[in-house]
Amino acid sequence: MGWVQTGLDLLVVALLGATLPFAIRLERALRTARQDRAALEGSAAELGEATRLAEAATTRLRATAEGAGRQVAEKLAAAEPLRDDLRYLIERAEALADRLDSLVRSARPLTAEPGRAAPAEPAEARSQAERDLLRALKAVR
């Protein structure tokens, strides 16, 4: 049985020798997988931190947007009475302008009468607006 035992031992040694390169490759692959796993766990932790920061930023942004919306609503509420006041003043100004226009039209025949002369004022005493108004009135005649 000596030669059978020796043959079997040689066969086992040959098989172990054949598996040695595969074992070395497997060990390298496992080492790489462990390194990748550590990097992956680190990346997962960083991703979790980034997600937490993004959620916090979103919350702050939402709060800021709500605050800005409230401020705009307050300003709008404060501006509405002013808008109504301005609308009222514009309506009154239009009515007064129409009334002034009718008074100017009714006064034109009086100034056109030869017997009535307007009091003379020095041109320097009149403002630019008065001079422009007089010029416009003369152009309309």
From TrEMBL:
InterPro entries: DUF6468. The chain crosses the membrane at residues 6-24. It comes from the Bacteria. Keywords: Membrane, Transmembrane, Transmembrane helix. Residues 109-131 are annotated as: Disordered. Residues 112-122 have a biased composition (Low complexity). Residues 34-108 form the DUF6468 domain. This is DUF6468 domain-containing protein. It comes from Siccirubricoccus soli.
